[in-house]
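Because showing beats explaining, we let one protein speak, sequence and backbone structure tokens together, and leave readers to judge.
___
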Amino acid sequence: MSYYDVDAILTESQKLPCTFQLDVPGLGYLDGSPGETITAGTKIELPLWLGTMLAVANSNNPSQSALVTLDFPAPLQTRVINALEADPKSVDIRAQAPHYYALGSKILELFEDDQIVEVLLKTFRQRAAEIADHAHNPRGALGEGQEFLRGLDEMERQLFKAAHEGPKAVRQWLIDMKRIS
């Protein structure tokens, strides 16, 4: 994560379900009860950066169990993955997570799940083709494509912008080159 990258900061702040494996005195403020002990088995949604830090806190000592175990966040659970497998273009990815693909990438650094990798790759490919179509066809973006475009995550929005502005920049470059020669 880059210190100044706002997108990376927002991705790392996405909530992640964590289950405490040990009793932790004084950490109750994470659960809304300041000063109390978090008991083993307590499930709390923590920001990705904090959950990851707590999960690896005891990793240098193999005799101790991990402080917390991590679960997949809601945007990457079975229900959403199945919907993406069925029809990637029908899922409002932005409603799942504004930085959906970045979140997926971060989670897949922690968990090895080839099925999710394949689904995310297939989803991005199919949606990228649709995004390019909308970027080059303004009528589609203004008409029936508005709902699809509202559901783009930040990476897809950047792709749309690049696909929309790219041909204009090439035309301008050609005009400038004709003036020079």
